[in-house]
Design brief:
The protein has helices spanning about 25-35, 35-40, 135-140, 145-150, 155-160, and strands spanning about 5-10, 15-20, 50-55, 60-65, 75-85, 90-95, 110-120, 120-130. With about 160 residues, it is an alpha+beta fold. The chain is globular, with a radius of gyration of 15 Å.
Length: about 160
């Protein structure tokens, strides 16, 4: 199984997902920097993502939506705050309305992705830090934990393909 652990820490207002892959760090980095690869795994299999904007640079913005099984759409946005290729990516993450504008009432999550070499394989840690315990609980109740596990579970097949 790709996902090694998922941990909720209400005191730190964080959720951490750890996964390991049979690919080197540079190959795993590609699934974050290339929007066509990113949209093949960002979101559960029943809610695939489509990135309409993707500026992979510090200060860059991304816009995407996920399409549900009944055709419903859920929008999202990122503001990339730091890139240290191929080991670290940080971005703010939030929900967006039908026009792609941030939905402030849902809050913002700060994500930090780290990729570590573990003997030619890669350990990926994704830490999400929430604005409040209420926001964290709402996101977990909406299915964030299972959704992230399902999303990460799609990465092995993608990595097995040629880069």
């Amino acid at each position: 199984m790709t996902v090694i652990s998922s941990t909720k820490n209400p005191e730190a207002l964080s959720f951490i997902l750890v996964a390991e892959f049979d690919a080197d760090v540079k190959r795993v980095w590609q699934i974050w920097e290339d929007p066509r690869q990113l949209e093949r795994w960002w979101g559960p299999p029943t809610w695939p993502a489509t990135f309409s904007q993707y500026e992979f640079t510090p200060g860059g913005e991304a816009s995407y939506y996920m399409t549900g099984p009944e055709g419903e759409k859920a929008g999202g946005w990122w503001r990339i705050t730091d890139i240290q290729a191929p080991h670290r990516l940080e971005f703010d993450d939030g929900f967006a309305d039908d026009d792609g504008a941030p939905v402030e009432a849902m809050g913002t999550t700060h994500a930090t992705v780290t990729l570590e070499d573990i003997g030619g394989r890669t350990r990926m840690t994704v830490q999400s830090v929430f604005e409040s315990e209420e926001q964290m609980n709402n996101m977990i109740e909406m299915g964030m934990e299972d959704g992230m596990k399902e999303a990460a579970g799609q990465i092995d097949a993608l990595l097995a393909e040629q880069s």
